[in-house]
Specification:
The chain is an alpha/beta fold. The protein has helices spanning about 15-25, 40-45, 55, 60-70, 85-95, 100-115, 125-135, 145-150, 165-175, 190, 200-210, 215-230, 250-265, 270-290, 305-315, 330-340, 355-365, 390-400, 420-440, 445-465; strands at about 30-35, 155-160, 180-185, 235-240, 295-300, 300, 320, 345-350, 375-380. About 50% of the residues lie in helices and about 10% in strands. Helix 11 (about 200-210) packs across helix 12. It is globular, with a radius of gyration of 23 Å.
């Protein structure tokens, strides 16, 4: 019987010979700088070895969970009590139904790139693939560090709360692991003063900074203390996840009074919350500029839509969505405020709603002032936008309105050690964009120059932009 052609073949997603040459000769061998992800630093430092593919591939992956729920699979087989093998079986039975969802591509790229398995995953071969992959994962060659080495990851950046000890990053520095593992400072919990758990968090921040926090000024002192600590441990990036930017007008007197009201257990109005968040964000952004950090803003996610399932499973379990927030005016006001003070540091802006692509691409041009290449970046397709069409739309908007040649490229934004083929996915899509333009006569057949631009976008621009 004739065997079907390999699905993830050498020229997957590459539609002509120009795209093939750009990918194979210029893009494919470039190292990976994964400057934003959610990998657990403890698992990297301990060089964890997983006992099954479920543990490394399905647990924690809300992309897969959403697909399984849509297909009508019981929560028992997703986040519940079912065995690892039964959970994998249910995922395998889901995969054939994910065609035209990026999960279908990612699944088969990851099986092939990490395990050398070219098969199309389904219910019939699930047990065999579960056993084969799980046996491999139990070996030293598939430890967390070796998986990163296998994917040619030169450096990566985890996401860490100000109260984190960074002990695992410190251990990694001493370990001699060749991949540079840095961190990003994520102080959102200190900003979200409207949260019911805000004062509990402030107490934790006070303990780790060894300061008393009983005022807005002492809160800023504690955050500065943690920024200094993170910086001393090699941190050069921060990250924030907001529905939209905070740029309301405030006075110092107002902000101090707002913190005191919260500290005293009194109700805060929406206006007071926004004033406080705007003030603290400006303080933090000015501090990032002082330390020479890169700041990242992930904008537009509408989180925790299903309150029943949030109560049952907690946050980050697959109940978030695209939000339709107004972005332009507050984003412009924030960037202009920092720029006017000459305190606008390198900035990356990500949007989660495709209708904002052109606006974001135009906005960054307002604050690229010639002081350095690509100072303000329109970040790669994020979350619901990190699929083929989302990446193409982001790059087309940036090409049409800005300079794609200055773009710092892809990241995984993932909690999985098996997600790094997403860089390959992006690189193939990028090369195909240029390859089609060459074939159509819209770009010259200058492979040496275009190959250089491809390598810049895949690696060199990020290497220059970040101080790791």
């Amino acid at each position: 019987m004739r065997q079907p052609a390999k699905f993830i073949h050498d020229n997957f997603l590459l539609e002509n010979t120009f795209a093939e040459e750009l990918y194979h000769e210029y893009a494919s061998k470039m190292p990976i700088i994964d400057y934003h992800n959610h990998l657990p630093s403890q698992e990297i430092a301990e060089n964890k070895i997983f006992d099954s593919i479920t543990g490394i591939w399905i647990n924690g992956d809300h992309y897969k969970w959403r697909a399984m729920r849509t297909l009508g699979i019981d929560e028992k087989y997703i986040t519940g009590s079912a065995s690892n093998q039964d959970k994998f079986q249910k995922w395998a039975s889901t995969v054939p139904y994910t065609m035209r969802n990026p999960l279908y591509h990612w699944t088969h790229m990851e099986l092939d790139r990490y395990f050398g398995i070219p098969d199309l995953l389904n219910a019939e071969n699930a047990d065999r693939i579960y056993n084969e992959t799980s046996e491999k994962l139990k070996t030293e060659a598939f430890s967390c560090q070796n998986l990163l080495t296998k994917m040619n990851v030169e450096s990566l950046c985890t996401t860490d709360d100000p109260i984190d000890s960074l002990e695992h990053h410190q251990k990694l520095v001493k370990s001699g692991f060749k991949t540079k593992v840095s961190m990003a400072f994520r102080p959102d919990k200190a900003i979200f003063i409207g949260s019911d758990s805000y004062l509990d968090y402030v107490n934790k921040l006070a303990r780790v900074s060894d300061l008393t926090i009983n005022s807005y000024d002492t809160l800023c002192d504690a955050l500065l203390n943690r920024i200094e600590y993170f910086h001393a441990n090699g941190c050069r990036i921060c990250d924030h996840g907001f529905e939209h930017m905070y740029a309301d007008y405030f006075t110092e007197t107002e902000v101090k009074a707002i913190f005191k009201k919260k500290y005293d257990g009194l109700y805060l109005s929406k206006e007071e919350v926004l004033k406080f968040q705007s003030a603290l964000l400006q303080f933090l952004s000015a501090t990032y500029h002082e330390f020479g950090w890169v700041q990242q803003f992930h904008l537009g996610a509408l989180r925790n839509n299903n309150s029943r399932m949030l109560r049952k499973l907690g946050p980050d379990t697959g109940w978030d969505s695209i939000g339709d927030f107004q972005q332009a005016s507050s984003l412009s006001k924030f960037l202009d405020t920092m720029d006017s003070k000459n305190k606008l540091t390198k900035t990356i802006i990500y949007n989660n709603n495709p209708i904002d692509n052109e606006m974001m691409a135009a906005m960054i041009g307002n604050f690229n002032d010639g002081s350095l290449k690509g100072k303000v970046q329109f970040g790669s397709g994020w979350w619901f936008m990190d699929q083929k069409e989302g990446m193409i739309d982001q790059m087309n908007a940036l090409s049409n309105i800005g300079l794609l040649s200055c773009f710092i490229g892809m990241l995984t934004d993932s909690r999985s050690f098996l997600s790094f083929p997403r860089h390959e996915y992006f690189r193939r899509i990028l090369c195909n964009l240029f390859g089609k333009d060459i074939q159509n006569g819209e770009l010259p057949n200058d492979m040496e120059w275009i190959g250089k631009l491809i390598q810049d976008i895949c690696y060199n621009n990020a290497k220059e932009y970040f101080d790791f």
